[in-house]
Write a structure and sequence with these properties.
Length: 72
């Protein structure tokens, strides 16, 4: 049996491999982030938070992730 295919993507300019298939929501979990605390751009298009679970990643995708921190 063949090993599961991995996707090669860029996250904030850094190459990363993720299992195929994966969604934006899967990536957020893989990175140990909370979806409510990030904004994500995929191939220069903003991904709305309700679409994280349905937005599939593709080989070569370029993602920019911005994390929000609260403070006072």
């Amino acid at each position: 049996m063949a090993a599961p295919k991995e996707l090669c993507i860029l996250v904030n300019g850094e190459p990363r491999s993720v299992p195929s298939p994966s969604t934006v929501a899967d990536l957020v979990l893989l990175l140990g982030m909370q979806s409510a605390q990030v904004a994500i751009e995929r191939n220069k298009q903003i991904v709305r938070r309700p679409e994280y679970a349905t937005t599939r990643l593709s080989d070569g995708d370029q993602l920019e992730i911005v994390t929000f921190f609260g403070g006072g």
